[in-house]
Structures are given as structure tokens and as C-alpha cells.
Amino acid sequence: MENILLGLTNVFTPMNLLICLAGLAIGIVFGALPGFSATMAVAVFVPFTYGMDPGQGLLLLSGLYCGGVYGGSIPAVLVGIPGTPASVPTSLEGKALVKKGEAGHALHLVTLGSAFGGFWSSIALLLCAPLLARIAMMVGAPEQIFVAIFGLSVVVMLSQDNLFKGCLVAIVALIIACFGQDPVNGFPRFTFGNSALTGGFDVNVVLIGLFSFPELFKMLEDPMGKMADAGKVGSMKLKAATVKSNIVNAVRSTIWGIVIGIIPAAGPDIAAFLSYNEAKKASKHPEEFGKGSAEGIIASECANNAVTGGSLIPLLTLGIPGSAPAALFLGAMIVHGVQPGPTLFTEHADTVYTLIIGFALINILLYFVGLGVCKCGSLILKIPKSILCTTIVVLATVGTFSINKNIFDVFVGFGAGVLGYIMLRNNFPTSPIALALLLGPMMERSASVTATLYQGHILDIFTRPLTLILFLFTIFSFAFPFVKAYLQKRKAKANAQS
């Protein structure tokens, strides 16, 4: 309790509050721009923390991290273009609500879900860090295989209208994920003599093109129109019934985000898809998903923002970063002489509790700052599409180039966009591509390591309790949609006969 009070005292100073707000605002801008991400925001500003004391530096990075994850959802709703891969599920529902003239409603749901998930992940960081860190220690290569396969089960739910097309797209995307060097042996594959393909296709570049340019081409079909009727955003007020009916969904999705956050190599994008999938399974109205479902937005946003706190749990307690931004936190902490690990909470209590309390405050501020940004950002709906398209092309081009400083990535992004538009016109789902590209490398790397560790005794992986649990979850996840469809069909048949 004494350390918590110390953290509160440190955070609630004018300078530290200003640092939290500045980091949050800058992070939102980075997240909202296609190609710019929370990781990039944290990386750019790490050198600025060297002149600060450790607590202030970590508060700045926390604001950038939380703001970056949240910011990607604003363009995902307003123009159907996710600023970050973690906002892809949000864009599926946000676009539909904008067409209904309920953009304000969608933006408020995004902001509320983001603040809720982020805040409770900071509480988990404060209260449950040692326990959750033990779970992180149990996660090895065999567990990561089933996390990846479990994630791919989302394809079944996302492609229920045309399962064959969805699975075909996912398989092709998994093959594309193999381009470049073998993750274990470093042997080049599918490079066709082109050195630019040695590193494979950058997932962020492909996703920017895949989700930016198809929307751009659709806008150009009616270039003189506006994003919504007369540029109206609609009321940002939420009905109490909507909030009340989503409490269980929000809690479940936040837990998903925290757990995914503590798993190294996973991240907010995987958490968003998994949580969206689980929300659809549990929903009483799964048919509304993809048509403007509040449940889908809440699930995605609570999960991807809960990853922020979750990824810091193994970092602070074990020195193992759970995400790319968390790895940058690790570097900043070491520069300041703060060594993460079991003794961190005693030797550097002032710094670590300043970070945790500040993290909770930042997510509370995110709600109010986010609503203000959304009210200003909603003006984008009043911009003629001809002007908006030009702006998006510039931002997407700069974004794809800035990731690796490689002009080849610009062509890859544009090619992915053309492919995405063709798929859209022929009713092929694009979301399975995102999932396969995100999970493919993780699954392949984990499978290679597992095969090396368990040579000739591969079934021994099921002696690991967590592996067995994840395996059963995976089987259930693949089977559930088919069992549910069968039961519904049987029930409808019984009702018809009676």
C-alpha cells in the first residue's frame, strides 16, 4: 500500500500529468496514420526519455503505447482503413455503422472499449503480475503452436458465408508467409533470385495495402460523394442497455487480451481477432457481426488494448518483453539503470509503481482525450472523397516506405491493394489473409523448435498441461461453429414439424 501511495504521489504532479497527456496525444496520431504504429511511436521517442528521470520516461512511453494501439481504430471506423493491424476487426463493424449514419456511436464504443481493456490490464499488472508471470514461464514452443492454430480457427467464423473461399485464402496466405528466409536455418525460400524477397513480405506493409487501397478504389467509384450522408456523424451517446449487455463481453475480451499479451510473439492484432471470434461464438445475435455489431467492436477494442498492460507483466517480473513496444521499454529501463526481474518491485519500487499507476491513469485519460479526438476526427466524413483519396494515397505510400525504408515495400503494398480489391469484388474474405500472415511465422518457428526438442517423441508435448489445454481449446474452436449450425438446423426443423 505504501508503494501504491508513492506511485500516486509521483504521477499526480503537473509535469508528469503533462507528460502522460502529451504521450497519449502523440500516440493516437501515430496509430491513426496508416503505416505508423504504437511500436514506431515508442521507438521514435525512446531517445527523448534519456534526459528524463526513469519514472517520467516510462510514463511518456506508456502514453505513446496506449495511444498508438487505440489510435488505429479511429480511421478503421471513419474510412474503413485500420491504422494498425489490431484494428482490422473493428473496421469490419465500424464501416457498417458509418453507412447507417452511426459513426459517433461506433467511435464512442471504440473509446469505451479501449479505455476499459487498458485500465483493467493495468490493474492486472498491479495485482496479478507474479501469478501471470508464472503462466508466461509455462509458455514454450509447443504452446505457441496451438496458440497459432487456435488463432487460425477464427477463419471458420469469419468465413461462415463461404467457408471454402475463406480456407482457400488462408492456405494461400500461409504459403506467402513462407517467403523469405527459413526462421530456424536461415535458408532462402521462394525468393526467385530477388534479394528484396530475402526478408519475406512485411506483414504490416501487406496489411496496409490490403485494407487501405481496396477502400480507396471503392471511394473512387463515386469520387464526388462524401463518406456519409451530408457528412453526419450521428450522436455519440450510448444507450445504457448497450453498455449493460456488453459487460460480460468486455470482461471476457479483456481477459483474452491480458493472457495473449503475456505470451511472447503474440500481440494486440492476434488478441483482437481471437476475442472477436469468441464474442461471435458467445453472441445471441451472431448474424449481426459484420453488419455493425456493438459486441464485435467492444470485443476487439477491449482485447487489443488489454494487451498493453499484459505485455508488461513478463517484462517487469521476468525481464521478458511480451511485445515489440515492451522490448523497447526494456531498452529504456536498462539505459536508466532499472533492471527488470524479480527484485524490481523492491529495489526500484518508486519507478515501477509510478509506471503502473501512470498506466492506469493514462487509460482513464484515454477515454476523455479519445472522445475529444473523435469529435474532431469525425470531420473527415465531410471531406469530399476526391480529396480524401489523395490524402490516403500519400499517407499509405509514406507509411509503407517508412516501415523498412524500402521502395520495394511500396510496390508490395500497392499490389496487395489491387489483389484485395479483386477479392472484394469476387466475394473473397480478406481477413483470413491478415490472420495467416500474422500467425504463420509464429506457427512455423514454434513447430521447428518443437520438432528439434522432441525428436522422435513428438507426442510428449501433450504431457505439458498447458499444451493439452490449448489443444482441447483448439479442437473445440474448430468444431463449435459446425456443431452450433447443426443444432440450429435441427431446432428449426423440429419447430417446422410442430
Write out key terms for the chains shown.
mainly alpha; two-stranded antiparallel sheet; 498 residues
Domains (count): 1
What's the overall average pLDDT, rounded? 80
- N- to C-terminal separation? 63 Å
Number of helices, counting only DSSP H or I runs of 4 residues or more: 23
Please describe the biggest sheet, giving its number of strands, its sense, and whether it closes into a barrel. Answer: 2 strands, antiparallel
Helix and strand element order: HHHHHHHHHHHEEHHHHHHHHHHHH
Portion in helices: over 70%
Please state the structural category.
mainly alpha
List low-pLDDT spans.
Answer: none
* Count of distinct strands: 2
C-alpha Rg (nearest Å): 22 Å
Shape: globular
Describe the strand arrangement of the main beta sheet, using strand numbers. 1-2
Beta-strand share of residues = under 5%
Organism: Ruminococcus turbiniformis
Protein name: Tripartite tricarboxylate transporter permease
Pfam families: TctA
Keywords: Membrane, Transmembrane, Transmembrane helix
